[in-house]
Amino acid sequence: MELDLQKKILEDPKMYAHLKENSYWIKLLNRDANNYKEFTEKMKEIYHERTTDKISDAIDNMDIISSVLMSLK
Question: pTM higher than 0.85 for the full model?
Answer without folding.
Answer: no
